[in-house]
Every structure is written in C-alpha cells, then in structure tokens.
Task: structure prediction
Amino acid sequence: MIDKKKVKIEKGAVEEKAEAGRYFYAVGKRKTAIAQVRIYPTSTPTDTLVNDKKLELYFSVARFADTVKSALTSVGLAEKFNVTVKVTGGGINAQSEAIRLGIARALIKFDENLRKVLRAQGFLTRDARVVERKKPGLKKARKSPQWAKR
Result:
C-alpha cells in the first residue's frame, strides 16, 4: 500500500505534495466536458495542474486560463489553494468553464459563506445548453435539404 503523504507527483517540472484527506472535491460540467476538481488548502500555493500540466501550458490562450482562475480570484482565495483537475471531453472553452464550475462548487464545500458571492457572479449556475441532435431526413438538427420545384 502506498502512503499518500510521501508520494510526489512530478509532471512538467511541477512538484506537488498532497496531504491525504485534506482536499475538497467537486465535479463541473459544460456541454460534453467533465472536470473533476480537487482544491487543497495550503500556505504555499503552487501552479494549478490540469491533466498533470501547468494551467498556462494546457490553456495556451490567456482568456481560458483567466476563466479557470475567476472563481478563486472573485472570493480572494487565489493564493490559499493548490488546484488539481482532471478534465475530459468538449473543447477548450467548455473545459475551462467546467473547471470554473467545479472550483466554485469545491469552494462551497470549503466554506458555505462563499455561496452568496459565487452565486452573484454566476459561477454556480450549470450552463445546460448542449448541441441539439440531428433529425432523420434533415442535413443537421434543423437545416432541411434544398428544395427544388422542378
């Protein structure tokens, strides 16, 4: 059996020591993206890891990295947590918004008093819009084939 306190994860020149039993877990979803988020309370924060990569390496566009960080920065706790994420499915925009929802839900588990601030920012609302299915006889979900009179 492996002792989790002594396990060091080293991926992409990032070292992180995780204390067993000292994290808050939540799941965020957006379109077909699913993000499993763990936030670790710490006094010395390191980089946010997304699929074992640094946040800035995984999301090369700064707008998506800012979306991920927005839930933590809105409550002023960006320097208090280490964040690790496993995300699958969807595109990079859906993944970043799924991670943001997961972080917001994990923060609620950490401190229930943050709910009002996160709700006002819209970070706790799950965006349920998904792609409409294709119907038989049509080219796409609603586009019909070209009509010819003769």
About this structure: Residues 1-21 have pLDDT under 50 and may be disordered.
